[in-house]
Model the fold of this input.
Amino acid sequence: MKVSYKSIQFLTLILSYTSLVSAWSPTDSYAPGPIDCPSDLQLTRSADGLSQSELSWLQGRDKITNQNLISFLKQVNMTDFDPEEYITNTASNETIRIGIAFSGGGYRAMLSGAGQLSALDNRTTNATEAGLGGLLQASTYLVGLSGGNWLVGTIAMNNFTDVQTILDEGILWDLTHSIANFGGINIFKTYDYYSSIDDDINDKENAGFKISFTDVWGRALSHQFFAGLNDTGAALTWSTLQESPVFQNFEMPFPIVVTDGRTPGSTIISGNSTIFEVNPFELGSWDPSLYQFTQVKYLGTNTTDGKPVDGKCIGGFDNAGFIMGTSSSLFNQFILQINTTSLSSAIKDIVSDILEKASEHEVDIAIYEPNPFYDTEIGSTSITNNDTLFLCDGGEDLQNIPLQPLIHPEREVDVIFAFDNSADTDQSWPNGTSIVATFERQFLPIGNGTLFPYVPDEESLRNLNLTAKPTFFGCDIQNLTSLLNSSLATSKGDIYDTPLVVYTANRPFSFWSNESTFKLSYEDWERDGMIQNGFEVASRLNNTLDPEWPACVGCAIIRRSQERLGIDQSEQCQQCFQRYCWNGQIDDSQIPPLNFTETGLTDGAEESGNRTISASSTLLSKENKFSLYQIMGIGIITFAVFAINL
Ligand SMILES: *[C@@H]1O[C@H](CO)[C@@H](O)[C@H](O)[C@H]1NC(C)=O
Ligand SMILES: *[C@@H]1O[C@H](CO)[C@@H](O)[C@H](O)[C@H]1NC(C)=O
Ligand SMILES: *[C@@H]1O[C@H](CO)[C@@H](O)[C@H](O)[C@H]1NC(C)=O
Ligand SMILES: *[C@@H]1O[C@H](CO)[C@@H](O)[C@H](O)[C@H]1NC(C)=O
Ligand SMILES: *[C@@H]1O[C@H](CO)[C@@H](O)[C@H](O)[C@H]1NC(C)=O
Ligand SMILES: *[C@@H]1O[C@H](CO)[C@@H](O)[C@H](O)[C@H]1NC(C)=O
Ligand SMILES: *[C@@H]1O[C@H](CO)[C@@H](O)[C@H](O)[C@H]1NC(C)=O
Ligand SMILES: *[C@@H]1O[C@H](CO)[C@@H](O)[C@H](O)[C@H]1NC(C)=O
Ligand SMILES: *[C@@H]1O[C@H](CO)[C@@H](O)[C@H](O)[C@H]1NC(C)=O
Ligand SMILES: *[C@@H]1O[C@H](CO)[C@@H](O)[C@H](O)[C@H]1NC(C)=O
Ligand SMILES: *[C@@H]1O[C@H](CO)[C@@H](O)[C@H](O)[C@H]1NC(C)=O
Ligand SMILES: CC(=O)N[C@H]1CO[C@H](CO)[C@@H](O)[C@@H]1O
Done:
């Protein structure tokens, strides 16, 4: 028989399609189920380097980012710098790696982050004209936490779709109704919604797996993030990424989401949290309290010392919504604040009652049982002796920007674009708490070889107006060598592996983007306003505030590479660094409020300015607090009743 080229193509298509399907849950539902695995499979490994899978993936991605970086650097019009010559000749023996990180902060963070991401994506209309379009295409890592993980997860799991397409198609991110009241006034829709979630949860439970609140949360979130998929992605697994064509051909950056380890009854701070990352291949932690990774595809498998018990493996546990729910399980915050509302006392009692019961089971903790690290030799016994692995919201330890995965010398990241959409101040603006926490952590035993440049305290960040416009940290490697001396790590990487950090905080340009973390629904105009504002934050108001901003970003990207090669900066780059680098100055005086200056909706005097868009205002005045938490409270009742009835 003569086999035509076409039929081979067709066959390849079928084959790749089959392998794709096999990566979804084997039961084609939310329930995990048995899958085949090699008899000598070792699922865990020590965190003493990158996985072989990641290393070989990087070889493919590096080639692409090198090419795309040349295009990007050409586009930003740097003077006295030839991108082609530099990347292909001068720095030909190394690769410039760019990481992008999006903080948590609920839908505020997801939407602001979406705008910021879209400004870096050349698929967004006008992003290239606004200066930074194409930076995403030149990046190696894309990291999200909590609300930022909704963004990264949505983009990555939907075959690296883009924000523009999401808005144009109108299928994903319909936030007009609170996730707890999905159908709005359409109670039938809401009923169907809850019963479908209920069915999914039952499927998993009947298959013999323990359920936690995060299962409910993850399935609910999936209605917004995987709305286009059969049963809104009930069978979509995180490890599907491995077989996604855009990942296999290195077209997308390496996505990572961050979550923290926390056992019920304990609290964590950045000095004692175990920070987990979930990437397309693995789940685990670099911290000495675990220092291991396991293969994400086989979560749910009973193991001892990382080997499947009786050679039996499970697939489908790593549901994409479940992973994204784990990174964002921030319900403690609701519990703590519910009593400050003006709900009627009858409702309050019920809510409190339910919440108390629920909190005994710690609603904000995701249960991973069986524990993939059970009975392993490395790390703390509080994790490895337990049959359950407990994970919680990635922001619970104050490190609300997921920088940890990017500051391990093994990843060789040159520059991090850190987008901070946290609500640190009373008015829900970031004040730098997160980068201060990450900076300090490197000096603790748990820092274990991570490297992060010097940053000032929050008062200085405020008084020097460093959250009003993008600020570069770690501009000069000569000033960083003392990081090595003061560290407790047994061995540190090369000081050149300390990334330069481009820190950009949420600010209002065309929209008051300081929405509450607990705002659960957005009208379309509010959603679009948030995204537009995020675009303006990243592009410095469509490249109008500083025409050289794109070139300055170029200077930041090539800085470490130039330092490694002993090459001096151009005149233009020196001037850029004068404008954007933190110069080491400290001003920790307790001066009254903020003095934001960089145009936009704040006029320099007050952080809230004369906020005018009252309809969307969630400034936490007494009145607003009332209505906000009332909506929230009703959401919680629905959810809690539902969860208790499981
Ligand atoms: C869609 O999901 C339903 C419910 O989980 C399942 O029964 C059905 O087989 C799925 N259909 C396809 C085409 O995957
Ligand atoms: C590349 O080559 C330069 C000059 O030979 C050297 O200084 C530098 O360390 C090399 N970089 C890498 C990553 O090997
Ligand atoms: C975006 O950049 C990539 C890589 O440079 C390129 O292949 C692609 O065609 C660009 N897309 C658009 C819409 O410009
Ligand atoms: C893109 O920019 C052009 C020219 O400034 C403008 O007319 C157009 O409205 C912009 N498109 C979008 C979608 O912002
Ligand atoms: C770069 O220069 C070109 C040609 O002068 C111009 O069209 C383009 O807008 C400039 N881009 C930026 C980001 O300044
Ligand atoms: C991603 O693309 C593959 C191949 O085109 C397709 O089978 C799969 O359903 C897509 N996944 C999502 C989440 O859209
Ligand atoms: C972490 O540190 C905080 C503050 O010192 C303490 O309250 C908490 O119990 C510690 N948690 C763990 C898990 O050690
Ligand atoms: C895993 O082990 C537990 C405890 O021995 C058992 O109850 C459970 O059924 C096992 N799960 C699978 C999928 O074999
Ligand atoms: C709320 O207040 C009630 C009555 O004062 C109290 O019993 C309950 O424990 C409180 N709930 C929370 C979550 O603090
Ligand atoms: C597992 O951790 C939970 C919560 O800290 C604890 O209640 C339980 O006793 C632990 N189990 C074992 C076997 O240590
Ligand atoms: C920054 O925010 C943190 C977290 O909300 C707060 O504890 C701290 O007081 C704030 N500091 C300044 C200077 O605003
Ligand atoms: C660089 C460094 O200090 N690595 C240490 C991290 O923690 C593990 C586990 O405790 C040690 O084995 C490494 O040496």
